[in-house]
Fold this protein.
Amino acid sequence: MHAANPRRGYILGLSAYIIWGLFPLYFKAIQSVPAVEIIVHRVLWSALFGSVLLLFWKHPGWWRELRDNPGRLGILALSGTLIAGNWLTYVWAVNNDRMLEASLGYYINPLINVLLGMLLLGERLRRLQWVAVALAAAGVAQQVWQVGSLPWVSLVLALTFGFYGLIRKKAPVAALPGLVMETWMLVPLALGWLALHPSVESVQPAFYTSSQALWLIAAGPVTLVPLVCFNAAARHLPYTTLGFLQYVAPTLVLLEAILLFGEHLSSSTLIAFMFIWGGLALYSVDIWLKLRQKP
């Protein structure tokens, strides 16, 4: 196990969240393909590209370790199920004009991460971090009160990704081998779905002469790169810090929803987001001050 490197973790985490923030542009390009079908292809192409990546990016002994510790396979099966549920909800939300709700889900997620970090990992917050969390919580609470009920898309996204990150932080499996095993465990389900739906467009040979096919195949690398960055970042940063970095992605999604895809931003939502941005700014200042103290 390598020693934690907060600066590397910060760069890796930011990279992951910027890529995730640009995901709606990708999913809008394949909007004509149903959400479940997109996820099936994400699983298949991620498994394939991940395996190719493993050939070049050596992780000696990873398979033997997994074989000798079958319990770790169970952990990866659970994390794989969580990430598949998260993908499905997100793609459905983007392609059904619920991007603001998806954005709110990823704003709630850092609060879930902070709670999980405190309750399950024994992490403690510094004073400035408490103020940041309180500001963000006030923003989310105001948004929930304004909507009148807890938006299910937001909650599902926040909880599935929160628990996914927690499991991967604690699982003694390197980022890439763990990710490849997660996707391979989902492959039988993906192939089963295609077998049960032989009439879908992406099963037809003619489909693979179209540009849509290239977009679907790209789901492999598009999925793998940010997840590898995220899983590696989780090894170098406290889980609460990783959670707050996540505000980068929904802010990008929010801007795309309003500026590119014409979703309406009410004044109450704007107030909620301003609280959240204030919390993010404070948390970032705290992290920066902490990093400066390091020799």
In short: The CA atoms of residues 10 and 233 lie 7 Å apart. The mean pLDDT is 85. The radius of gyration is 19 Å. Residues 267-293 form the longest helix (27 residues).
